Amino acid sequence: MRIFILLISFVLLRPSLSAAQNEIFIGDHGMASFVSNAPLEIIKAESNSLKGVISPSIKGFAFSVSITSFHGFNSDIQRTHFLENYMEQKKYPQATFSGKFIEDIPFDTPGTYIV
Q1: Facing residues of 45 across strands?
Q2: Fewer CB in a 10 Å sphere around the end CB: N or C, the chain?
């Protein structure tokens, strides 16, 4: 049995539009990491090239990260298997994720929020 955990940290946000109602935050200094916890070995890797946008007015977000930017595997062959066999990086060079916030987040108040 494998347990897969993905953590996304979006650290630098900057408003790209001035109208508060349509404000969009863009970040290009995020981090994505994962852990695969299997009985024989734990596989960990991370990328510091996450980019994304958050739109408070529609409670939406979207993130993207290059598959080849992940590093930190236990060996080079493990990274090769990850890129070629699991992620099919030649066919899918970017991983993307989009969704909506369920919680109300006070975007006008500085801080860290877990959502």
Answers
A1: 34
A2: N
What are the pLDDT digits (tens) for 47-104?
Answer: 999 998 988 889 999 999 999 999 999 999 999 998 999 889 999 999 999 999 998 8
**Residue 17: per-residue pLDDT:** 47
CA-angle at 114, arms to 96 and 36, nearest 5°: 55
N-to-C CA span, the chain: 27
Provide the pLDDT for residue 41: 86
Quick one: CA dihedral 78, 84, 90, 92, positive or negative?
Answer: negative
Q: What is the pTM of this model?
A: 0.73
User: What kind and span of H or E run contains 69?
Assistant: none
Output the six-digit token pair for 100: 């909506």
Beta-ladder partners of 52: 27, 63
Name, in order, each residue with C-beta under 8 angstroms of 20's C-beta and a sequence gap of 6 or more.
none
